[in-house]
Amino acid sequence: MSNDETPPGPRASRRAAKPRKRRRGLKITLGVLLVLLLATGGTLYWLYSQLDGNIKGVDINKALGEDRPEKLPTSGQNLLVLGSDSRAGAENKELGGGGSVSGARSDTAMVVHIPEGRSKAVAVSIPRDTLVTRPECVKDDGSTVAGKERVMFNSVYAQAGPACVVKTVEKMSGVRVDHYLEINFAGFKDLVDAIGGVTVDVPQDIDDKASGLHLAAGPQKLDGTESLAYVRTRHGIGDGSDLGRIGLQQQFLMALLSEVKSQDLLGSPANSYKIAKSATQSLTTDSSLASLTSLAEFARSMNGVDPASMETIMLPVAYDKVDPNRVIASEPQSGQLWKAIREDTTIPEEAKKSPATGG
Asked: Which of 53, 64, 157, 296 is deepest in the core (most CB within 10 A)?
């Protein structure tokens, strides 16, 4: 996440009401939404068309060619999930903190590994301030961006586009990325508002004067603007670095997924459509997922993955000796972590420990 903090406006700290009881029933995915829409017949086909047209696609395979890690038979599925801090559009610009910052960066980055059998998953967060080697990349316009050492990970998106972020992750990890998902500021905010907010257990009082986020420790139900400020705050927790807020981002992701799964969307087709619209209109995926049908099929295949069992890990990093404001992947921990993901084996406990913690 970037230094620009989202000013949600002054708001008194408060305790949220108890989260509503999780409803029993079918696990809800975009696949269920698709069935709901199509079951109503041709009169609602335009709804499906509208949602389908919202999704933007990036042809990762064409951009990267054959210079990629091998896809192992037991490697499961690997998704690169990015939260973009793009200021494109009026709402993104306002949420991003005004017009002084241009372009876009990968504000949040997670490699989500789903093992064979798809009963569990692990999300590895890559700190945005990590110094990496950016490989030579071809941009969307056909121009070439030369490779360079010691660049900030989050700068790759701005300099060379999403396909180059995928290539950078594959080069640094040796992990083949199967799918790419990206959502911007406005999409994140609108999705949280569409589901009625998300309840998180705030680990400590947050008094972030830079963003205007003020929360008391304990359970809090956050709306979209507050949620965006929560996952982006860096002055309100830890040492003020990107590392300190990664734990908040991972915690929020689990709470968001659990909230979506708990909602009785079958009982409210209108709400189903509202949520799906918010989820798709600010979404960019790889071209193989860039349709509602493809997303629905992929979501159905992941139906057995319970957010409560998802493990979250920060890529082990150490403070850079030349620039202590930056971090580098720590060895041997990061190598052990990526090896376990590549081979779909148990991640060693020592591979989960980061010398730099941001605490």
From this structure: 157
